[in-house]
Design goal:
The complex is a heterodimer of chains A (about 300) and B (about 300). With about 300 residues, chain A is α/β, with parallel strands linked by helices. In chain A, strands 1-10-7-6-5-4-3-2 form an eight-stranded parallel sheet, sandwiched between helices. Chain A starts with a helix and ends with a helix. In chain A, about 45% of the residues lie in helices and about 10% in strands. In chain B, the strands form two sheets. Chain B has an eight-stranded parallel sheet. A two-stranded antiparallel ribbon of chain B has the order 8-9. Chain B is built from twelve helices and ten strands. Chain B has about 300 residues and is an alpha/beta fold. The longest helix of chain B is centred in the middle third of the chain and has 20 residues. Helix content of chain B is about 45%, strand content about 15%. Chain B has one domain: Homocysteine-binding-like domain (TIM Barrel, Alpha-Beta Barrel), CATH 3.20.20. In chain B, strand 4, helix 8 and strand 5 form a beta-alpha-beta unit. The chains are: A alpha/beta (about 300), B alpha/beta (about 300). The interface between A and B is large, with 44 and 44 residues.
């Protein structure tokens, strides 16, 4: 029901606003980045969703990016080693945390009285580090992984699946296959590079075409700086519904952790107004759904809403 | 104390004490270890080193586990992407942090007037320590080690402690680079419950590969006590040189550590005694161990 309303709006060509950064917002609000802060600070995460809803987001995204079983296993030689030296229950940890994350998103909808109006996008990240297309394993493994992620989020009854920050074609195909089998609506976002390709160097146009032919309702560009999103957007807007969101600030990775840690600095250099200026260009290019990536805040979304709509 | 004095101690079979966990001590004090806390909490780093010296450690290690240019670069698609998307001077930062870490260890021994304590540079595998499958092409990493070790040596470390290595080929590269830089190299390998290395090599293979390299000390580390015991039982009868151990206590709960009460200092000590009986003389603690663990070993095992 919820998604159907959204789709009608999308089909009619009206502009919709997505939420902004979640991981970066968790850190900005002083929560320690362990297991996504879900156990430590559920109230903060719920409040972030509420703030985005109050800012006018037409869709909210679950706080599940990079929250996967594999993400825990990656720290160990294999599952057996994880059981030997790891904290108990790591195998099922990600799934439990995903469930909690989506409960928090639903509670935010209730609190703001927007249940049934605003759908929840179930966010799924690339199998490995979003900036490392070269680390993607075989397409069989990618398929299994995404199948599992989709099934967890489907169990949590998200309204649709959002494969975010896809960076290479082989994994994209695997994800699309897994997504299609869930019968849930699909959105995909692709990371462009500043040479006009996917981050991994393959054709961005080809990737967008694959996604659209694979039944994806909206193809986004995301997980790159404002200029890179702006530069690449025209190449994918002409064939279907297109979305855009950019990262702001500079990624400051941890000095030891091998996985993504959503710490961005100098985000204040892209004010909500400056961000909205770029977004206006995206709208002119043909994007009809616009949100914020890492580093953006509810203020950015509120400004998008008030200036673009 | 110079390394010559320490070596004499080691060669005569006296117990030499290492420190305990550093990253986990930072966590235990309520901080995240995401950036080693070298810049934000230098005082905490200093106090942890001081705690270990006061506890009786003869060798303290720098807070630099997994801190390398590669660790930062691994977060980006390419150098070009890092320049575009990353904060400025990310890789230059490593040299600065290495210097800071050595300085903090040095300040700790100076503050306590303990020039006899030596500083070991904590250096782990280039890729993730628990992932033998990620070991880079061995033919291509010598220069990377050489550059890294030169930096630590210039900053003033006395020993290279190659720790949490999961296989011997990378250890061989590291020890050869240490030799070229001209400072002693200690190799600490991760054992598994079957008494082999985490990467699958048997202790016979370890001895065949590392024996000719003559590392100053060969150790086992970063596994629970029963894995260390399984490893040392197999390794000790085969290894002619100095042998060491430091196990972790508690459970790895990425990205943090779950502290358990399974091995309080007295119980950890009895494991240490067992390892000592088996032939280990360089003894310390890995993740999850605290200055209390080291203090108890110091007061009990050195007599």
């Amino acid at each position: 029901m919820t998604y159907q309303n959204l789709q009608e709006k999308l089909s009619s060509g009206s502009l919709l606003i997505l939420d902004g950064g979640i991981g970066t917002e968790v850190l900005r609000r002083g929560v320690r980045w362990r297991q996504h802060g879900i156990e430590d600070a559920p109230d903060v995460i719920r409040q972030i969703h509420i703030d985005y809803l109050n800012a006018g987001a037409d869709v909210i995204t679950s706080h599940t990016f990079n929250l996967t079983k594999r993400n825990f296993i990656n720290f160990f030689r294999d599952t057996e080693h994880m059981v030997e030296i790891g904290h108990g229950g790591l195998e099922t940890r990600a799934e439990e945390l995903c469930h909690q994350a989506i409960v928090l998103a639903k509670e935010a909808l209730e609190t703001t009285g927007k249940q049934g109006q605003v759908p929840i996008a179930g966010s799924i990240s690339p199998i490995q580090h979003l900036f490392r297309p070269d680390l993607a394993p075989s397409s069989e493994l990618c398929y299994e992984h995404h199948k599992e992620c989709v099934s967890v989020l489907k169990d949590c009854s998200v309204d649709f699946i959002f494969f975010e920050a896809m960076n290479n074609i082989s994994e994209l195909k695997a994800a699309l296959q897994a997504g299609k089998e869930s019968n849930l609506p699909l959105w995909v976002s692709l990371i462009p590079n500043h040479h006009g390709n996917l981050l991994g160097g393959e054709s961005l146009v080809e990737a967008a075409k694959l996604a659209r032919n694979g039944g994806v309702d909206v193809v986004f560009l995301s997980a790159a700086p404002l200029e890179v999103i702006t530069q690449n957007l025209p190449t994918i807007t002409n064939r279907g519904i297109t979305g855009a969101k950019a990262m702001i600030g500079k990624y400051n990775p941890p000095s030891w952790k091998p996985d993504f840690y959503p710490r961005f600095e100098q985000t204040d250099q892209s004010t909500p107004e400056a961000y909205a200026d770029f977004a206006r260009r995206w709208k002119d290019t043909g994007a009809t759904i616009i949100g914020g990536g890492s580093g953006t805040t509810p203020e950015h979304i509120a400004t998008l809403k008030s200036t673009l709509i | 104390m110079s390394y010559t004095d320490l070596k004499q101690k080691i060669d005569t079979g006296e117990v030499v004490l290492l420190d305990g966990g550093i990253g986990t001590e930072i966590l235990r004090h309520g901080y995240t270890w995401a950036s080693h806390q070298l810049k934000n909490e230098p005082k905490l780093n200093l106090e942890i080193h001081k705690d270990y010296i006061s506890a009786g450690a003869h060798v303290i290690t720098t807070n630099t586990f997994q801190l390398s240019r590669r660790s930062f670069r691994n977060h980006f698609a390419s150098d070009e992407h890092m320049a575009l998307q990353g904060v400025a001077n990310l890789t230059d930062r490593v040299g600065e942090l290495v210097n800071d870490s050595v300085q903090l260890a040095d300040n700790a021994r100076k503050a306590l007037g303990r020039d006899d304590v030596l500083i070991a540079a904590s250096i782990t595998t280039l890729e993730w320590c628990f992932r033998p499958d990620k070991t880079p092409d061995i033919e291509k990493i010598y220069d990377e080690y050489l550059a890294e070790l030169t930096e630590y040596s210039d900053a003033g470390t006395d020993i290279f402690l190659f720790e949490t290595f999961n296989s011997t080929p990378e250890a061989v590269v590291a020890i050869r680079a240490a030799r070229e830089v001209g400072k002693p190299g200690w190799i600490a390998l991760v054992p598994y419950k079957d008494g082999n290395l985490l990467g699958g090599e048997s202790m016979e293979q370890v001895v065949d590969a590392l024996g000719p390299e003559e590392p100053d000390v060969l150790l086992l580390n970063c596994a629970p006590p029963h894995h260390v015991t399984a490893g040392i039982e197999k390794l000790a009868p085969l290894w002619k040189g100095p042998l060491g151990v430091y196990a972790h206590v508690g459970k790895f709960n990425p990205p943090e550590w779950h502290f358990t009460n399974e091995y309080p200092p007295d119980k950890y000590l009895s494991e240490c005694k067992h390892w000592h009986d088996l032939g280990a003389t360089v003894i310390g603690g890995c993740c999850g161990t605290t200055p209390e663990h080291i203090a108890l070993i110091s007061s009990s095992l050195e007599d």
